[in-house]
Amino acid sequence: MVEIKSDKQIEKMKHAGTILAECHKALSKKVTEGITTIELDQFVDRFLYERGATPAQKGYMGYPFATCASVNNEVCHGLPNRKPLKNGDIVTIDFVVNLNGWLTDSAWSYGIGTISPEAQRLMKATKKALYKGIEQAQVGNRLGDIGNAIQSYAEKKGYSIVREFIGHGIGRKIHEEPQVHHVGDRNTGGKLKEGMVITIEPIFNQGTPFIMLGSDGWTALTFDGSLSAQYEHTVAITKNGPIILTEQA
Ligand code: MF3
Ligand code: CO
Hints:
This protein has helices at about 5-30, 35-50, 115-135, 145-155, and strands at about 55, 65-70, 75, 90-100, 100-110, 160, 165-170, 175-180, 195-200, 205, 210-215, 220, 230, 235-240, 240-245. By secondary structure, the chain is an alpha+beta fold. It has one domain: Creatinase/methionine aminopeptidase superfamily (Creatine Amidinohydrolase, Alpha-Beta Complex). Helix 3 (about 115-135) packs antiparallel against helix 4. The two termini are about 30 Å apart.
């Protein structure tokens, strides 16, 4: 069952999303050479508590941190750790904000110092694909239209899409229906209705789409060791078009 949200509920989610977006903007200045992902995790944790919000990932299915921090060939669900970030690294920080019981989810990839043209190109294409997907989040369209927009763009740019991790409905729980695939055919899949709130969160790899699970039991890594990037927004589907609840104004 896809839970439809009222305008009032979407408004509440927008407040959670604004805190999340402001936290990402603050992170963009902190993600620099020498900082560790555990320090970034603690920064996010404090940022949210100071604003009356909580990090919803902490304790979710036993996950121990506020954020996931995935570096270079790490695809997603990377565990924050004490290793300093180096010049040229890319890191994706993903977290979910709970404000008064309403959740929003957004991930962003950051480059540290001077990153390679290849890494820049990968990040740019992944972000662009997210916005191509969001453009399709219109009442009357189907889920396959979102997947198709992202897939076509990935193919055009020569990147592969990780299939194992998908977007999802979100509201009072992190993962609600529907499942939002980042590949698909136009005019297929469930119809998008007014009041649906979903995440769109494509992960692009430089090499093959295949992944493996790291020895910590959480971190997903590219199978071929190539770079991976991810961008994610929480999006409300309204009669006036998609509203990005986590946009970094
Ligand atoms: N933010 C992730 C998502 O997009 C959820 C991570 S679950 C965790 O669905 F347990 F790893 F935190
Ligand atoms: Co998500």
